[in-house]
Every structure is written in structure tokens, then in C-alpha cells.
Amino acid sequence: MLRHLRILLLGALFLTALAACGPANNTDGNVTLRFAMKVGDQDAVCGKNYPGIGKAGTEISFTDLRFYVSNIRLINAQAQEVPLQLAQDGIWQYQNVALLDFEDGSAGCSEGGNTALNDVVKGAVPPGRYTGIAFDMGVPFELNHVDVAVAPSPLNIQALWWNWQGGYKFMRVDMLTDTPGAAMAPTMEMSATAPAGSQGEMHDQGAARPSAWFIHLGSTGCKSNDRAEPPSAPCSNPNLVSVRLDGFDPGKSVIVADLASLLRDVPLDQNTPEPPGCMSGPKDPDCPALFLGFGLDLATGATTGTQQLFRLQNP
After folding, report:
1. Which among 22, 29, 179, 201 would be 20 to 30 A from 63, CA to CA?
2. What is the pTM of this model?
3. What is the mean pLDDT of the chain?
4. Residue ranges of the domains in the chain?
5. Does residue 140 have a cis peptide bond before it, meaning omega lies within 30 degrees of 0?
């Protein structure tokens, strides 16, 4: 009897010690985050048509597919957020900002794109077990208003920059739709340099593209003496998309930006010119449904709900 009690006691002590150790680590500290851009279950690529998108079931194709992420944190088993220290590769990552690029410069993406692609973010955290991830889609204020002409990569891309005052386009997804006469698109030069301000600041329509629908997300309400000067105080509408995803495994999970989900309630058959699509202005009539998908308040640029763009894909 005493022997059995000793065995039971030893077993209980072993289980207690095992529980205290917790589950095994799922990273040695070197992390490669894998991203994908999709339309539902299909990869989002240049030169392909995607039917049945948005509130009106519109057919779309892409002419640009890029976005910035920043302030990445991995969430450990104790629900603590641990910053990911990005590798400074001189190309895709600088300080705490990384660029994800899914356009390859082919087909409709040839005007403003290039052949380089990037679907990963590399960095380091302390070894451990991580079960969630959080990040912002966008560029933080302290880096958002640098001069693109002298900025380090990936902040040196003119097509992702409005001007010193407006800063960067956090996401640039340019689409063509099957809706004839929806809008007249600006030229690539106008689209690349227009400020993220209120509607009515762009009047030159450029070349006619009746089916263009653009998503250019960035900060608005950025005040300075003119567009060629950076603001000294944060913009009134930061428009940083806040993302938190549970069920994350650093070695297995893919972070999916699902444009079909983002555009689910957006009427892509309706389009107000000057310019077409959403340029993030608080009075832009094409932005309300899109901003709900981003989990943002269009009037203030603050996070107000759960974003519906990003999800995890696990094996």
C-alpha cells in the first residue's frame, strides 16, 4: 500500500513538473513570416480575372498589389506581446517596416510595377512558444513622412508615396472592373503623387480608363505649410489597420490578405471619379464600406472594429 502511494506521489510530482515546463517551443527565435495575397482561395496575381467580387458580384483584375506592415509582435503562450526584431536586409525591411509585394510587373501591372516579389518578413524573437501574431498594416508616423527620393528601401518607391505631407500609401491595390463607364482613372503619375487629403484635390483625370477602381489607403488630415513639407504633428486620421490573429504557429502559418473578404460589402459597380475608388479621404463616397472591412472609422481613422482582410491559413 505504501509503495503504491509513493508511486502515485511521484507520478503527481512528475505531471506537475511537466505542466510547469509548458508545451515545447515552436521557434528557436529565428522567424520567417509567410504572407499570401488571395481572392478567396485563389492567389491574387496580375493578368487574371476574378468574377463575383464585392456586393454586386463584379469581375475584377489587378494592376497593383502591394502593402506595408509594421510594429509586428508575436504573442506567447502567456498572452504577452513580444516585438519581432526585423532583419535589416536593405531591400524589403527597414527598422520596423516591411513591404509585401505581389505584383510581378506583368500584364496590367506593367505600367507601375516591377518583376521583384516578396511574400516573407524575417526577424527574431526570444525562443519560445507563440500562439498569436499582431501587426499594423501601414507605416508609423515617424517614418511616414520622409523624402522618397533619399529614403532607404523599401521606403523609396515613388508609386507607394503621395508626397511629404501625405506620406505613404499603406496599401495599393489597383483594379479594373467589368463595369463600363464607372469612372475615369488618373494617369499613373497622378495616382502615385496625389495627397491623401480630402476629395476635390485632384481634378486632372488623365487618360480615360472607364473601369478603374483603386484602393490607396494612407493617413489623412496631415497638416504642414504645403505638400512639399512633412507635418510636425501626427495626422488627424492615422488609418493604420490593426491586426491580431490567434492560432498562429511561426513555422506553419501563412498570413493571408484575402481581398474577396475585404471587398465583400463594397459596391465595385459604383465609382465616383476624381479619382476612382478610395483614396482614404473622410468624404470620399467610395470609402465607407471599404473602411468597415479594414476595421477603421472613416471619419477619424481610428480602429473601431475587427478587420476582415487578414486571416491565418494553417496546414
Report:
1. 201
2. 0.86
3. 87
4. 2-313
5. no
